[in-house]
Amino acid sequence: MTKRDIIRRISEQGGIDEDRVRFILEDFFEIVKSALGEGEPIYIRKFGSFILKQRAQKIARNITQNTAVTIAAHKIPAFKPSLEFTKQVRGQEILVKRKK
Fold first, then answer.
1. How far is CA 97 from CA 10, 32, 43, 60, in A?
2. What start and end residues bound the annotated signal peptide (predicted)?
3. Can you tell me the distance from the alpha carbon of 25 to that of 3, in angstroms, rounded to the nearest whole number?
4. What's the mean per-residue pLDDT of the chain?
């Protein structure tokens, strides 16, 4: 499902103009990005949390040049689904679409 599909579905179910839904959805994404950028997690009940995870410094290998490269400690964004969300998804059959 793409962002366009989500916009259409919300528009149809809510009876709201697609442009208005797109504006709201884009604003939501910007708020999530800016909040995480400031180090503030976002908690949405019965859905999940957008959080930052800390990655430790590590040494990686560049196999083409056979050298060690140090990767600095950094933070990455992550989504942690709520227990209710997880239970709902676990109860559903997984449909796998294969591209030809």
1. 23, 29, 31, 34
2. none
3. 9
4. 91
Our measurement of the distance from residue 65's CA atom to the centroid of its chain's CA atoms, rounded to an integer in Å, reads: 34
**Side chain identity at 89, as an amino acid letter?**
V
33 SS3 class:
helix
Query: Which amino acid belongs to residue 28?
Result: F
Cα–Cα distance for residue pair 16/28, rounded to 1 Å? 17
Cβ of 50: how many Cβ atoms within 10 Å? 19
Residues in the chain: 100
Query: What's the rounded Cα separation, in Å, for the pair 66 and 69?
Result: 10
Q: What are phi and psi of 68, to 5 degrees?
A: -95, 140
Which residues, 6 or more positions from 51, have their beta carbon under 8 angstroms from its beta carbon?
Answer: 36, 41, 42, 77, 78, 79, 80
